[in-house]
Amino acid sequence: MSTTTACGQAQDSGYRAVLGTPYVARLLGGTLIGRLPTGMAPIAILLLVRAEHGPLAVAGALGALYGLACALGQPLLGRLVDRHGQTRVLVAATAAASAAFLLLPCTGRARHPVLAALTVLVAGLATPPLEAGLRALWPVLLPDAGRQRSALSLDSSTQGLVFVAGPLLATGFAAGAGAATALVATAALGLLGTGLVVTSQPSRAWKPSEFTEAVHWTGPLRVPGLRVLFAALIGTGVALGAVNVLALSVAERHHAGWLAGVMPAALSIGSMLGGLAYGRHAWPGAPAKHLVTASVGFAAGWLPLLPDPAPAAAVLGAVLPGTFLAPLLTAAFLTVDRLAPEGESTEAFAWLIACIGVGQAAGTALASLASAPLLVAAPLLVAAVPLAGAAFALWLLHRFNDRLSS
User: Fold this and answer.
1) What pLDDT, on a 0 to 100 scale, did the predictor assign at position 164?
2) Is 66 helix (H, G, I), strand (E, B) or coil?
C-alpha cells in the first residue's frame, strides 16, 4: 500500500514539474486547440450532409475521405518537418486546411459532389502534424528521461480532450447556428492552436537532425517492429472510426439526437481517465507487453454495445473501451520512441497517427455500409465493426509481440 502511494505521489510530482517547465503548458494547450478540427470535422461533415437531407452513406463516405486524407498527409508532412523544421510546414498546412473548411459549405454537396469531395480531400491532406511535432519537442524541452515519460503520459491522456470537446463543439455549433457555422469554427480553432505553437520559441528554434547519409525512401517503415505496430493500430483506428457512425445510427434509431456527439465524447472521457490512471504508476513489464494487455481490454469493452442498448446504456458502454485506449496509445508512442531511426522521429510518430487515421477512415466506411437500410441486422453489424477492428489489433500485437520487444 505504501509503495503504491509513494509511486503515485512521485508521478503526480512529475506531472506538476512537467507543466511547470517553460513553454510546456503553452505547447500542450496549443496542440490540443490546433487538433480540435480532427475531432470536429468528421461530425461537422456528417451533420452538414444530413442537414441537406443527404443519405447517411454519402455523409459517411465524405467523413471517411477526410479521415483517409488526414492519414495520407501526416507522414509526408512529418518528413518535411524532419527536413525543414516546424514553422513553415505547420503554417502552410494550417492555412490550406482552414481555407478548405471555409469553402466546404459553399460547394453544394448535392449539386457539386466532386467539388465537395476535393475540398474535403484538401482539408484532410493539409492537417498539420501538430501531435507528431509536439512529441519531437519533448526531448528538447525535457532532457530528463523520467520527465519525458511523464510528459508522454500526460500528452497521451489529454489528447482525448480533442475527441471530447470536438464532437460536442461541432454538434453545439450546428444546433445553435447551423452546420456551416460548425465548419467556420473548425477553421478558426485550427488557426488559433497552430498559431500558439509556431510562435513559441521551442517550435521556432527546433532544428531538424543533420543527415550524414541518404535516408531510405520507406523511412521508419523499414523497421520490422514499427511495421507490426502500425498495422495493428489500423485495427484500433477502425474501432475509433466506426464510433461516429455508430453514434449517429443509435441516435436516429432511438430519436435521441444528442447521442451523435455524446457517445464519441464518452469514449474519449473514458480514454482520458484510463490514461491518467495508467500514468500514475510505474507498471511492470515493457511497453510491448502493455500494448497487448490494453488491447485485450479495448476489444472486450465493445461487447456491451452489440445488443443495441438504450441511449443511457450506450453512453456508459462507450466509456468502457475508452478506458483502455490512452494506455494503449501511450505504450505505442513509447515503443515508437524506442524503435524510430535517428533523425526520423517526427515522421515515425506521424506514421503511427496516419495508420490510426487509415483505420478510422475504413471504420467509418464499413460502419456506413453496415448501416444500409436493406440489411435487417444493421444495428448488430454496425456495432460489430469496432469490435472486429479492436480484435484484429489484439491478434496482431499478440502474434508478433517479439518484434516490438527486439
Assistant:
1) 72
2) helix
Q: Where exactly are the structural domains of the chain?
A: 18-210+219-405
361 vs 124: CA distance, rounded Å: 11
Which residues make Cβ contacts (< 8 Å) with residue 88, sequence separation at least 6? none
Alpha helices in 104-213 (DSSP H): 113-125, 130-141, 145-158, 160-177, 179-198, 201-205
Q: Is 212 exposed, middle or buried, given 0-12, 13-18 or 19+ CB atoms closer than 10 A?
A: exposed
pLDDT in tens, 167-189: 889 989 998 888 899 999 999 99
Question: What CA–CA distance (Å, rounded) separates 218 from 210?
Answer: 18
**What architecture is the 18-210+219-405 domain classified under in CATH?**
Up-down Bundle (1.20)
> What is the Cα–Cα distance from 10 to 252, expressed in whole angstroms?
47
The label of the residue with cell 501526416 reads 74
User: CA-to-CA distance for 187 and 264, rounded, in angstroms?
Assistant: 21
Min mean pLDDT across 25-29, 76-80, 162-166, 356-360 is at 162-166
Q: Which three cell numbers stand for residue 276?
A: 491518467
